[in-house]
Design goal:
Layout lengths: L4 E5 L3 H13 L4 E7 L8 E2 L2 E5 L9 E4 L6 H10 L5 E3 L2 H14 L18 E7 L16 E5 L12 E2 L10 H4 L2 H10 L4 E6 L2 E3 L8 H4 L4 E4 L2 E2 L14 H14 L1 H11 L3 E2 L5 E4 H21 L11 H16 L6 E4 L1 E3 L2
Parallel strand pairs: 1-2, 1-5, 2-4, 5-6, 7-8, 7-10, 8-9, 12-16
Antiparallel strand pairs: 3-4, 10-15, 11-17, 12-15, 13-14
Helix pairs in contact: 1-3, 5-9, 7-8, 7-9, 8-10, 9-10
Length: 349
């Protein structure tokens, strides 16, 4: 990073990850501002750095890093060009992944999967790709690996079929998809799938896993593969406020206290940190995946009962958002118990 003074376009997940990576890896680089289109739904400052609208930022020669999801880059670049800001650099998902790999190696010390040695044994995976009958089309070219299996989430709620495997076969919670989102497929996987490693992806959110990586899993006795964590400011505790009511958050905490008090006790410390596992996507050894499901779903069921209105009286995806928080809680709690490896997430557009 040669530029000493920069601005970052964005003030949420991608921007925070890029900012913290730059702050750690390039201490001589000074961030002048976080730029946003609309200040109304953003903090006035982040780490004492102002959050400004484009209209309020007048240093047009300063390099601007576009730190948002790839599908917004073209729109943001057009807005910058319109205001005479031509010195910008889009931070693609691939660039972000490289930054985060360097950041994690310097801070958390959890390895990226592709850096580990290969062995001669190939892991046996069954990773399910959650699809919904209202998903928008994907424009990104994408090759379905032989270990990826499309599964229709919420199949019980429609007569439309989008793939052969459905989440309403056998023991299931498919009818709860309006609240659980892709977690209805995770429930099905935990009950029915069988392979050395089990996993869940979304139709457009995946973990990057090469053919060579399959030979790294047994060789290095990897227990869990997660996307590198997003970084939030000032910590991840406030993350839920964007997606969840405080009443629903408190219902989840009460369910934790009733069913898993040890984790409830650990929650304030873990959520006082900055690292968060988004999107409910992961791969784990079968026993770990099933143990996680056996831990997760009773908590979510009890949360539904404690919620006002109750889960059976609504359909607003809130349980899916809570699942992300509980994924973070569970795997941060067990990060010294499990042999975890990170890999970039791939966002199809």
């Amino acid at each position: 990073m040669k530029t000493e003074e920069i601005a970052i376009y964005g003030a949420r997940m991608v921007a925070m990850s890029v900012y913290h990576a730059i702050k750690t890896l390039y201490p001589n680089c000074k961030v002048l501002a976080f730029l946003v289109t609309d200040k109304e739904n953003n903090q006035p400052s982040i780490d004492k750095i102002p959050v400004l609208s484009l209209e309020d930022f007048h240093q047009k020669e300063v390099k601007i890093l576009i730190a948002a999801q790839d599908n917004y880059h073209q729109e943001i670049a057009a807005a910058l060009e319109k205001r005479g800001m031509h010195n910008y650099l889009p931070i693609t998902a691939a660039t972000e992944a490289k930054l985060m790999e360097q950041y994690e190696q310097k801070t958390e010390k959890i390895p990226f999967l592709h850096t580990l040695r290969q062995g001669e044994q190939k892991a046996n995976l069954a990773v399910y790709l959650s699809k919904f009958h209202k998903d928008r089309p994907i424009r990104t070219p994408f090759e379905l690996k032989d270990w990826m299996h499309p599964i229709q989430s919420g199949a019980a709620l429609t007569d439309i079929s989008v793939c052969e495997q459905k989440d309403n076969i056998g023991e299931n919670i498919s009818q709860k998809n309006g609240n659980y989102s892709e977690l209805t497929s995770m429930y099905w996987i935990g009950k029915h799938a069988d392979a050395e490693y089990l996993g869940l992806f979304h139709y457009r959110r995946l973990l990057e896993l090469s053919d060579e990586d399959l030979y790294r899993l047994p060789e290095n006795n990897i227990d869990v593969i997660l996307a590198y964590p997003a970084i939030y400011y000032p910590n991840i505790y406030a993350h839920h406020q964007y997606y969840l009511s405080e009443q629903d958050w408190n219902a989840m905490k009460q369910a934790l206290q009733e069913l898993e008090p040890t984790y409830a006790k650990a929650l304030p410390k873990i959520f006082g940190e900055k690292l968060f596992y988004n999107h409910n996507i992961l791969i784990a050894k079968k026993e770990i995946f099933r143990n996680y499901c056996n831990w997760l779903f009773p908590i979510l069921k009890r949360t539904e009962e404690l919620s006002k209105p109750k889960g059976c009286e609504r359909s607003d995806r809130y349980i899916g958002y809570l699942g992300e928080n509980l994924t973070t809680l569970y795997f941060q709690y067990h990060k010294k118990d499990f042999n975890i490896a990170y890999t970039p997430r791939h966002m199809l557009i």
